[in-house]
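User: Could you walk me through two proteins back to back? I'd like the raw sequence and the structure tokens for each, with a short line separating them so I can tell where one ends and the next begins.

Assistant: Of course. Protein one, sequence then structure:
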Amino acid sequence: MAVVKIANEHLSVEVSSMGSEMQSIRTSDGQGWLWNGDPVFWGGRSPVLFPIVGKAPDDHVSIDGQRYPMGQHGFARRSEFALLSSGSDFCRFELVASAVSRAAYPFEFGLVIEHRLEGRAVRVTAEVRNLDHRPMPFGIGFHPAFRWPLPGCEGQEHTVVLDNGAEPALVRLSGGLVEPEELPSPFRDGALTLSHEMFEQDAMIFPAGAGAGLRYGTGEKAVRFSWENLPNFALWSKGGGRFVCLEPWHGTAAVVGGGDALEERPYGEVLGPGAVGRYAFRAELEG
């Protein structure tokens, strides 16, 4: 496992070759804004989810009638990526199909993850390429965990405010799978004040999405967070953990009582042979 550091006058970011996962975001004053990955609560920091988002029934998916083992959120986050290129303010890692990946996902693919600094922002882009001779179904998503409270904001209320002012319908998980019942939105006029009690039933999932951008934080400090080509959204934290995950996805966990066919998973993506899909998020730090 290798770690690449990129930096500009405002930010420094570290990215691991394991999962092409961001390990830290620090401002020029040395303050860290990303969760530290304390394994007592949750060892992740900013995993990339591929080729599924969430769980599959009995941790298996079916492809062309054959069952394959597939753990929660797929295998990319636990795979070693190769460094394609890097500069002072960017790095690009790639994962390609291997004997190990084919045992769970029998497709030829390329997955390139780029982290690039843009002033006080980091932009993370995923490029999925179908290198197979047949249509390739998959899900993809991002799972960055930001500190809660943000640095220097102890004791202050933290809110999530959607750019579109919407009140998206909520669904919950049961055994890691999506309950089909829609629940009232926790947002009011696009705003939600966070509390740890909200996550006692696991993630809050908004399958119809939450627009394309939001502001997370306090009046003093915040993360301006936006995403592209990712129609689903979730918020998640874990009891005692001092973080909240802002998760834009293309695909969700399977539905309770539903089948395990990969191409039938909700909101999944399908690329034709030779096609390329691009997905991204951008996090700009304020304050």
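----
Protein two, same layout:
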Amino acid sequence: MPFIRSLVYNIKEAKYNPITIIHGMLYGATATYLKILDKLLRLNFQGFRNHVEETYHAKVVRLDDATKFITINRDIELVNLDQVLPYKHAKDIILKNPQNIVVYECACRAQKSDPCKPTDVCLVVGEPFVDLIRMFQPFRSRRVEADEALKILKEEDERGHVHTAWFKTAMLNQFYAICNCCKCCCLGMKAVFEYKMRTLLPSGYRAVIGKNCVGCGECAKHCQFDAIEIVSIRDNGKKKKKANVIPEKCYGCGVCESKCKKENISLILDPEKGVPLNIEVLAQSK
């Protein structure tokens, strides 16, 4: 079993603090870990849900912002990002050696019998997290260069999947991974839709439909948040279809923008959706 092999590997190599090691070993049992977590969330114990929200959460990021985590060529230290992530815990971005990247099998996809493919689409960035993942999941992860990491992001964007930046208390209270999420597999998105939890925050942007929309429906078909509907309108006395954004549902991921063949959808800043997680802009403002 991969978990037993990982456990043996950890016993030989582990040099981190005991709490992180224990968590890492549990997380090494990728599918089992999330299946248990899902069952616990179903119990509807509010105290546990609050704990999960505060210690394990994410923010949606556009493709352009996601790529900045991969391409930034210097160490970054951003702490207490209250304006970006209004949580008590896990809100720092401390990137040491951001060119040190590992791709590993998505834990959410691994726990499904018919997951979206491919499954190795989660990117861990910087130290010590890359070494930690390699230690605890040596058979489900591999090191990649920045070019391959960017390729993974772009291919997932083409599949209509949402880029998310994850923060976790067990990972030193800070950012550690860029994931590529879909509502059919992602437990974080499931927590939002089914359990009404605040595990996932909007990007800070909102989609806007341009006047030349022909109502083809591609944007609505690919929206992971069901935030776009196709409606009938009258234009100069003629009835036609047009896409309509439901503002309260839009997370500003940009999937609809990339799927619009007419290039008729754009993202605008929306203060009601929070502050974008753009590490270069945030670094300049410090």
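Residues 2-203+274-285 form one domain.

Let me know if you want the two compared in more detail.
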